[in-house]
Write a structure and sequence with these properties.
heterodimer; A: 481 residues; alpha+beta; six-stranded mixed sheet; four-stranded mixed sheet; 17 helices; 13% strand; globular; B: 84 residues; alpha/beta; three-stranded parallel sheet; 3 helices; 18% strand
Chain lengths: 481, 84
């Protein structure tokens, strides 16, 4: 497995085509806006080296028999699914942000089982190809971006009905040695910090959409791939070179709009090409794994936010107020409810035909549906406890001004024993998670990441077993039909 | 050949587990299997994809047949007959 430094060095060797604020980024590993997000991924490598985190951070590969980073593991039991969620909570706690490496793990597990079943139905050999590919990922300990979401254009039209045929990524040419693809994937978490990208279709498809039913893998610096880095609220504070106003100077997350401008994919990296009847299965399995993931990562960030709220309550001298205690209890209750969902859909998982383990679909969707709501309430309560100074406080530049500093120090002090700067730092951390750069991950990504709320409600409806519930009610009511 | 049936706990079944087993056990071809040569069979019937009945251990020599959805009983009956 790679160390933290080996991971960063390996990124430097890539020739990524990254654009940020209208300019090409020469070295993403040193750009001040990007570096915190790289540090978050690097933490997935660093913790795997520590014996005190080894049980969660590593696993034994079913493909090679070797010890691997759990972010590259193909789940072999319900216990593996549970450990995945616990690992994600740990990473959320250590970074206070999105650590980006989950999408590749979820994509791998979804493709593993789907290609197996696709091969059985169609006589293809995608499973064998994928296993060989994934062995390489495990052995080199690479970070993989899982790319699913197409821009989708007119949501009322299927991929093949769009006015612009490229609004869903598609095959534009088939050659004896591979395919050429064109299109885009939006919201790509961690792409700039990844070695490889695994592309999947974004919706269930019909025969007329078969050119869009495509799954494959490429190095992130493959010819024709470029990335446009997504803006985040307060992102340019990172250019001010001050560690106070950013709230979380060490860690962050990122998303990018990724363009595939007629990119060649060799045959050994294609895992679906036209088998439209399996597009829906792949989407559903990836989505369910990723909805499980949110029951871990968001909980870890929630732990940081609850800790920040409890600390600022102390700095404000309000920690003994009953309503403050109750708000912290409510935040904890909501956060642990999300964790319950992540753990339960793991415990209730089942083995697929391919032998890997898959989460309980109903409970994973319930998990994510709660994630679309609870972080917002946790954030609201954190803002309530923090007070309005969180968003009206002077800047670090003011703090560094020798004329202004004594006044800020005097008038922004809370309890006398806590330095004013500590209070400012804690307020900035809460600001960062609730409405700064990390709010991308903690709030709006909680809403739309792994599918928007209605997507979960459709899945919940499909798996609600309403007929069984109606029969239970009729039996108890004494109704015989 | 003996056929043993075990069920999951039945907390949230997505089909009539008992009805499925009844249709299998009352089939003439299955009834004729009793006492014939061939390995014993364990029919592990779960109500959903969680497949809890799969975790119930088979006895020595038993061949496990796992069911977790409203499979056509004919498929299972044919499997049992072919085991003989």
């Amino acid at each position: 497995m790679m160390t933290r430094q080996e991971y960063i060095d390996s990124l430097k060797k890539l020739n990524l085509d990254v654009w940020l604020l209208g300019e090409k980024v020469e070295d993403p590993t040193t750009h001040p806006i990007i570096v915190p997000s790289m540090n978050s991924v690097a933490m997935t490598y660093e913790l795997a080296q520590h014996p005190e985190y080894e049980d969660l951070m590593t696993a034994t590969s079913n493909l090679t028999g070797q010890k691997v980073n759990r972010f590259t593991h193909i789940h072999q039991s319900a216990q593996d699914l549970v450990k995945k969620v616990k690992m994600q909570r740990l990473l959320g706690q250590k970074t206070g942000s999105c650590f980006q490496r989950c999408v590749g793990m979820d994509a791998a597990n979804a493709i593993y089982s789907t290609t197996f079943e696709c091969d059985k139905a169609h006589g293809t050999n995608y499973f064998e190809r994928f296993v060989e590919y994934w062995k390489m990922i495990q052995e080199k300990d690479l970070t993989v971006d899982g790319a699913m979401t197409d821009p989708k254009g007119d949501r009322g039209l299927s991929p093949s009905q769009q006015a612009d045929p490229d609004l869903y990524l598609r095959v534009v040419e088939r050659r004896p040695d591979g395919i050429v693809v064109r299109g885009s994937k939006a919201h790509q978490t961690g792409m700039v910090n990844s070695h490889e990208v695994v592309v999947m279709p974004t919706v269930a498809m019909k025969e007329q959409d078969k050119d869009y039913a495509v799954a494959f893998a490429l190095p992130c610096d493959a010819k024709g791939i470029f990335m446009i880095y997504g803006r985040q609220s307060c992102d340019t504070r990172k250019l001010e070179h001050n560690d106070l106003d950013v709230g979380n100077a060490q860690f962050g997350g990122h998303e990018a709009l990724v363009i595939f401008d007629d990119v060649f994919v060799p045959n050994d990296r294609i895992f679906m090409d036209g088998e439209y009847d399996f597009a829906g299965m792949l989407v559903e399995r990836f989505a369910s794994y990723h909805r499980q993931s949110y029951g871990g990562c968001k909980v870890g960030v929630g732990d940081v936010l609850i800790g920040a709220a409890a600390t600022i309550a102390e700095y404000n001298g309000a920690q003994k107020a009953s309503h403050i205690k109750d708000k912290l209890i409510e935040m904890t209750h909501l956060n642990e409810t999300l964790y319950c969902c992540g753990i339960s859909c793991s415990c209730e998982g089942c083995e697929t035909a391919s032998g890997n383990w898959y989460v309980d679909g109903l409970l994973a969707n319930v998990c994510k549906q709660n994630v679309t709501r609870f972080p917002y309430e946790i954030a609201r309560l954190a803002e309530d406890i923090a007070g309005g100074i969180m968003v009206t406080m002077p800047s670090k530049q003011d703090w560094d001004n020798e004329k202004l500093r004594p006044y800020i120090d005097k008038y922004l002090r809370g309890v006398a024993c806590v330095p004013t700067e500590n209070r400012m730092r804690m307020l900035r951390l809460i600001e960062n998670i609730t409405l700064g750069t990390a709010a991308v991950g903690y709030r709006t990504e909680s809403m739309h990441g792994a599918g928007s709320p209605q997507a979960q409600r459709i899945m919940i409806a499909r798996q609600s077993n309403l007929e069984h519930k109606k029969k239970l009610a009729k039996d108890i009511a004494g109704i015989k039909e | 050949m003996n056929l043993r049936v075990v069920y999951c706990g039945g907390c949230n079944p997505f089909y009539d587990r008992v009805g499925l087993v009844r249709r299998i056990l009352t089939d003439e071809r299955v009834r004729e299997l009793s006492g014939t040569a061939g390995p014993d069979a364990l029919l592990a019937v779960s109500g959903c994809s969680r497949s809890c009945a799969k975790r119930i251990p088979a006895l020595d020599g038993e061949v496990r047949i796992a069911v977790n959805d409203a499979t056509d009983p004919e498929t299972i009956i044919r499997t049992l007959v072919e085991m003989r």
